[in-house]
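step: validate -> pass
step: tokenize input -> pass
step: predict -> running
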Amino acid sequence: GAAAAPPPPLKCLAPAKAYKDKQEALTALLDVVNSSKSAHARNFWKALKHQEGLIRAQFGKFPLIRQQASTKERRMSAVTLQVQLCEYRQYRHYIARHKYGLPDDESMRGEVEKKTSRLVSDNFVEFDDKCKRCTFSLPNEGDKVEIEVPYKLVGNNRMVAYRAASLCFMAVRNGSTQKEAMSFRDELASGYVGGDDVPDSSEAWRECRCGLSGDSPVVCFQVEGKDGKRFPFQTTEKAANGSKLEAERIARLCWHRFQKGASKDAVLAFRNSEYSKIGGAAPPAQERRTPAKKQRTA
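step: predict -> pass
step: emit ->
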């Protein structure tokens, strides 16, 4: 059949040729990144080593964070490169909005976005590492709602700040005003306890996202068992002591354990122990047996 087209950021940056699939294109770009000996590459690895040293010193008691902040020179992983491609895509959207007044960079849209008019948080929420915050702006009934989530509101965790901003984006997309969205942001931050988390490059950040609907919003994802059959797994805001961000954090840690081969019973026990640490409670048996349908998330 015809060769599969790489995602827009990968198509833009990978060496120009026909690839049989996305993985081949990613591998080609990864080879370029890890083999480059230019001045820019030398400066990149030098800066990365310094920054990761600061991160390890700051978050020494969190093993997953230490593990993530230990990149060997010219040994960037494919997973980390995928995260960098997402940030490159956001950068292109930022230039389109702030320099040219466009809603986004059309050339960076994925297939799903080309087929739907639904506003997607990943195209609007931006990292601002210089000011240590995540931000977005969105038209709302003739006005522009502008929200920022400083990293310090959520324990200086930039990825959690991104998730908080994304949840605020969902609220604004659903009709919340600037004042309501700011109040919602503060509510999200006040319920966040923090603790161990997955690496910034983990797919768990995309897989484990909380919805806004229902009396107790859930974070639900699918797991493939050792027998090849898939089953749903969830955390809930209610069980996470009323915190959406904690429900997401605990879900990410559970997702990570499943990826490492842990059994469902072991992960359930871990999940419930994490609930207890933040003052939450294990869900009733019926809820454990029948996780809710995955909600629409940002």
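step: describe -> The radius of gyration is 20 Å.
step: cleanup -> pass
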